[in-house]
Amino acid sequence: MHDTTDMLIELGAIILALGILGRLAGRVGFSPIPLYLLAGLAFGKGGLIPLHASEDFVATGAEIGVVLLLLLLGLEYSASELVTNLKTQYPSGAVDFALNAVPGAVAALLLGWGPVAAVALAGVTWISSSGVIAKVLGDLGRLGNRETPLILGVLVLEDLSMAVYLPILSALLAGVSLAGGTLTLLISLGTVGIVLYVALRHGRLISRAVSSDNAEMLLLVVLGLTLLVAGVAQQLQVSAAVGAFLVGIALSGEVAEGARSLLTPLRDLFAAVFFVFFGLSTVPADIPPVLVPALILAVITTLTKVATGWYAARRAGIRSAGRWRAGGTLVARGEFSIVIAGLAVGVEPRIGPLATAYVLILVVLGPLTARWTEPIARKLTEAVRPYARRRAVLPAAAASPGPAEEQIDTTATHS
């Protein structure tokens, strides 16, 4: 009874603190993710007020938070949208992977963390935050801009890539052999292919089977199905998050809209618990030693994300201003980076503090780059333009003969 009382008090304090922090972030117009991470650091080991009684409950809530994050993400896309994005945006997706995953992998190897940690840190630096970016686009009134579909296309490709990346990472973290890892990847790819095919051909039948006019029944069926599939996927080492994502893709139409409205509050609650749990598992004293690498990585991958957006917009024939806006908008990292780091801390504990510092930097910097990258690029271009023109004029002036030279040439010709 005493343990239950302590657990209720601790949970109440955590949820109340999250509510206050969320309202504060809303007032400022910022993502609440960095505040949730800071709250976890304050309540965790080595923090101001360490928690004990509610730790197991919070850990379970964090697992549910990851599942709901991926489920709601899958509900945002239909199978046809994913296939269309794969066909049109795959060059941008390849550039995105090369520019943003490589710095993380190289950093892990330079730090001496080994190849498995390199794969994990590559994912941390690669994946942008869909949630933060969607909010920024809405806040800045850019949902109707020409570059916005390209931004969303890059995000969709990143999200779909998780269906391949997470099983590979899970297999590596579990120490599975090459044959076992190959089998896991084949299972994952086969499952994704089957789900996309079924969703394209028979999505309406699946949605009709799940559909219910009773909101309570719809909530129970969708949530129960998601947790069941996530558990089976985890058992197959495909990743619970991927299983939840595929359930979201399979549902469409009114069912997807109804499930989204019912599950969004639950997603927000358990996602906040997940960020707090990640902060709880990170010792604040471990952050200062990795702060410099995190800052260097943040600077490098800010530039590479800007380059990614610029390239994607250029492929679509969008003008310079839209290219810079697209690049600046993609900078923010958030939920996926923390999910990946949370999986990897068992193999390399230092990934946790580094990912926390990295996400804290970029989740704050992301909205600023979205707003200011294009104006700064325009001012720099205007400042450099006169010098460029002057340099272009000088060689032309040097190449053209002066009056004296013309006279000498004329005399020489007549003589």
Topology:
Layout: H1 2-28, H2 33-43, H3 55-75, H4 79-110, H5 115-126, H6 130-139, H7 148-173, H8 178-210, H9 215-235, H10 240-250, H11 253-280, H12 288-315, H13 320-329, H14 335-344, H15 351-399, H16 403-414
The domain tally reads 1
Could you say which structural class the secondary elements and strand pairing correspond to? Answer: mainly alpha
Mean pLDDT: 80
| C-alpha Rg (nearest Å) | 26 Å
Question: Which stretches are poorly predicted, pLDDT < 50 over at least 5 residues?
Answer: 404-415
Largest sheet: none
Output the helix-strand order: HHHHHHHHHHHHHHHH
Globally, the shape reads globular
Number of helices: 16
Q: What is the fold named in CATH at topology level?
A: Na+/H+ antiporter like fold
Quote the distance from N terminus to C terminus. 117 Å
Provide the β-strand percentage band.
under 5%
Number of DSSP strands? 0
What would CATH call the architecture?
Up-down Bundle
Helix content: over 70%
- Kindly provide the name of the CATH class: Mainly Alpha
Short description:
The chain is mainly α.
Could you characterize what this model shows?
- With 415 residues, the chain is mostly helical.
- The protein has one domain: Na+/H+ antiporter like fold (Up-down Bundle), CATH 1.20.1530.20.
- It contains 16 helices and no strands.
- It has helices spanning 2-28, 33-43, 55-75, 79-110, 115-126, 130-139, 148-173, 178-210, 215-235, 240-250, 253-280, 288-315, 320-329, 335-344, 351-399, 403-414.
- Helix 3 (55-75) runs parallel beside helix 10 (240-250), helix 4 packs across helix 7 and helix 5 (115-126) runs antiparallel to helix 7.
- It starts with a helix and ends with a helix.
- Mean pLDDT is 80; it is low at 404-415.
